[in-house]
Write a structure and sequence with these properties.
Mean pLDDT: 90
Number of helices: 12
Transmembrane segments: 48-66, 86-105, 117-135, 155-171, 223-244, 256-272
Helix content: over 70%
GO molecular function, one term: undecaprenyl-diphosphatase activity
Keywords: Antibiotic resistance, Cell membrane, Cell shape, Cell wall biogenesis/degradation, Hydrolase, Membrane, Peptidoglycan synthesis, Transmembrane, Transmembrane helix
Number of strands: 0
InterPro entries: UppP
Distance between the termini: 24 Å
Strand content: under 5%
EC number: 3.6.1.27
Number of domains: 1
């Protein structure tokens, strides 16, 4: 892998990790178009490294909220905060189901990482997102306009929906959690906020676990491209998340779903043929 490839893949990871378009699908397609096998040990380690760059970006964007969750806010002591506030129990309920499934079904999940599975997941995830947007507008009783209004039940339901993305590569973690939140009576923006927040611990756990198996791939020949990919992924993810939250009322889940259908068509042309 050269530096240009590292930069391209870092851009793709940073751009797609936190929006509901499937970073897995994009990484497979991009690696294929660049002539790389995304299942080689070096590539798998590289993907973990650039995911960590994206995680760092989201942690910086939500730094003040993270401090509040940990018991301290830059603006005021936690004791003076409103009694109804997102807390660590919400986060735990949101990540526990997926972490448990990922731990006990790790080998099975790895066996699902192939092109056909991802292709179908892109389409199925898009359909699920369209349904969630329709259901949120016409059927669901909106009870959480912002993330501090969420109940423990809603956090747990979002955690259950997240399992879909764990068991079905290409479905999109953010897509399943945002759509799941909207079906559960949480607003689009609050669902996105919660999705980004729970991404930090769950992705750190997953990436850290993978690094235990692949740390030997950090050599003098690879460290440079790994660092370049990490930095690019961090910068791109940071600005993408800021832009997404600013434009969230203009870019609906249906728009992302249509994009996924187009991506699936491109995926089918380049990967399946």
């Amino acid at each position: 892998m050269d530096f240009l490839t590292s930069i391209i893949l870092g851009i793709v990871e940073g751009f797609t990790e936190f929006i509901p378009v499937s970073s897995t699908g994009h990484m497979i397609l991009t690696a294929k178009m660049l002539g790389y096998d995304d299942q080689t040990p070096i590539m798998k380690t590289f993907e973990v490294v650039i995911q960590l760059g994206a995680i760092l970006a989201i942690a910086i964007v939500y730094w003040n909220r993270i401090l509040t969750l940990l018991g301290w806010s830059r603006s005021e002591p936690i004791a003076k905060a409103a009694p109804k506030r997102l807390n660590l129990i919400h986060v735990l309920l949101g990540i526990a189901p997926a972490l448990l499934v990922a731990y006990f079904a790790r080998d099975f999940i790895k066996s699902l990482f192939h092109a056909q599975t991802v292709l179908f997941a892109l389409v199925a995830g898009g359909i699920f997102m369209i349904f969630a947007e329709w259901y949120n507008k016409h059927k669901a009783r909106l009870t959480a306009e912002n993330v501090d209004d969420m109940t423990y039940k809603q956090a747990f339901l979002i955690g259950l929906y997240q399992i879909i993305s764990v068991l079905w590569p290409g479905f999109s973690r953010s897509g399943s959690t945002i759509a799941g939140g909207m079906i559960s009576g949480v607003s689009y923006k609050a669902s996105a906020d919660f999705s980004f927040l729970i991404a930090i611990p769950i992705m750190c756990a997953a990436s850290g676990y993978e690094l235990l198996d692949s740390y030997r791939n950090f050599t003098s020949d690879t460290i440079g491209v790994f660092i370049a990919g990490f930095i690019v992924s961090f910068v791109v993810a940071y600005f993408v998340v800021l832009a997404f939250m600013k434009l969230i009322q203009k870019i609906r889940l249906t728009h992302f779903a249509i994009y996924r259908f187009v991506l699936a068509a491109v995926f089918w042309l380049f990967i399946m043929h």
